[in-house]
Amino acid sequence: MTKEYSLEQIALQIRRDIVRMVTNAESGHPGGSLSSTDFLTVLFFKKLNCTPETWTREGKDQDMFFLSAGHITPVYYSTLARCGYFPVEELSTFRKIGTRLQGHPSIRWGLPGVHQAAGSLGQGISVAIGAALAKKLNNDDNYVYVLLGDGESQEGQVWEAALFASHHKVDNLIAITDYNGQQIDGRVEDVLGFTHLKEKWEAFGWEVIEADGHDMEKIEKAYDKAKDKSGKGKPVMILFKTEMGHGVDFMAGTHKWHGKNPSQEQCAIALAQLEETIGDF
Amino acid sequence: MQQYINTGNKDTRSGFGAALSELSDRNPNIVALCADLTGSVKMDGLASKYPERFFQCGIAEANMIGVAAGLALSGKIPFVGSFANFVTARVYDQIRQSIAYSKTNVKIAASHSGLTVGEDGATHQTLEDLGIMRIMPEMVVINPCDYNQTKAATFAVAEYVGPVYLRFGRPSVPNFTPEDQVFEIGKAVTLSEGSDVSIFATGHLVWEAIQAAEILEKEGISVDLINIHTIKPLDEETVLKSVGKTKAAVVAEEHLVAGGLGELIAGVLARKAPAPMEFVEVDDRFGQSGKPKQLLEAYGLDAANIVAAVKKVLARK
Question: Which end of chain A is more exposed for a tag (fewer CB within 10 A), N or C?
Answer without folding.
Answer: N
